[in-house]
Amino acid sequence: MALRERRRCGPARSSVTALADRFRLDGRTAVVTGGLGRLGPVWARVLCQAGARVAAVDLPGLPVPDSMADLLGGGALEVFGADVTSRESVDRMATAVRDRFGEADILINNAGIDAPPEASTRTFTLADHDAGVFLRTLEVNVLGAFVCSQVFGSRMAQRGHGAIVNIGSLYASVSPDARLYEHLPTDPAFLKPPAYGASKAALVNLTRYLATHWGPAGVRVNALSPGGVEGGQDPEFKRKFNERVPLGRMCAPEDLEGPLLFLASGASSYVTGVELLVDGGFSAW
Questions:
Q1: Which residues are marked as active site?
Q2: Can you give the pLDDT at residue 123?
Q3: Can you tell me the distance from the alpha carbon of 142 to that of 267, in angstroms, rounded to the nearest whole number?
């Protein structure tokens, strides 16, 4: 009996190993835009841990955050400067990445503008919201992703393989609840900028467009939409937000690592054109 059980377990262990190998990214090059921002280090770290060479792309001159400083110097990660809204700038950066690491196999379109309450220096009413600010958010969050996809996605299509992951948001699917911010001592009351959710909804639809366009060429394009990522929010906001979440808590950065690795790797080889919501069930209600 014991011998038969060992024989049954042998193939199972081999299958587990083979499945784990599908999440590996050894020998592949990944580009992460907005690589020095809030979530950029999360994506960069998990991609490096899976074996990829990672190009963290952000505006020139920005400091490297402490959360990713330990990744530098080992040859697996390097920082590149570029403005994602400029085709000329992205072309130069893509050439530099190719010369350093080889052609990109993975693109994480993470660069974006957000305005959480703690980052707001001026609140506004909807009637007096600056149209220039609205347009700039669309430019970075949507046009920036499109330009980077043009450059890297086209090269992937020529080579017959690649994976693009666009970083969306819970607010691509639902509207922000202004009641979550009513306790904040601002005048006028804090409003989540309307362009943020609009830009992320546009990015999700762009994901579907690119997935159908490049699917025949072997390039998969998906969206990963986090919901309510823990980041030092005030206790009252977290209490109110958590009451809306079936899992009862905000998203921890490590909750995003597995979903990102799934979409970037061969583990999702038959998945394209989808939005993967990582929101603790918030949007289920």
A1: 196
A2: 87
A3: 27
Which CATH number do you get for residue 71?
3.40.50.720
Q: Which domain holds residue 208?
A: 25-284
- Tell me the HSE value of 285 on the side-chain side, using a 13 A CA sphere: 10
Residue 253 located in a structural domain: yes
Look at the chain and report how many structural domains it folds into.
Answer: 1
Rounded to two decimals, the pTM is: 0.93
Does residue 92 sit within a domain? yes
4 within some domain: no
- Name the stretches of the chain with pLDDT < 70: 1-13, 118-121
Contact 25, 47 (CB under 8 A): yes
Per-residue DSSP letters for the chain?
A: -HHHHHHHHHHHHHHHHHHHHTT--TT-EEEEETTTSSSHHHHHHHHHHTT-EEEEEESTTPPPPHHHHTTTTSSSEEEEE--TT-HHHHHHHHHHHHHHH-S-SEEEE-------GGG-S----GGG--HHHHHHHHIIIIIHHHHHIIIIIHHHHHHT-EEEEEE--GGGTS---GGGGTTS--SSPP---HHHHHHHHHHHHHHHHHHHHHGGGTEEEEEEEE-SB-SS--HHHHHHHHHT-TTSSPBPGGGGHHHHHHHHSGGGTT--S-EEEESTTGGG-
Q: Which residues contact 142 (CB under 8 A, 6 or more apart)?
A: 199, 202, 203, 206
pLDDT in tens, 231-281: 989 999 999 999 999 999 999 999 999 999 999 999 999 999 999 999 999
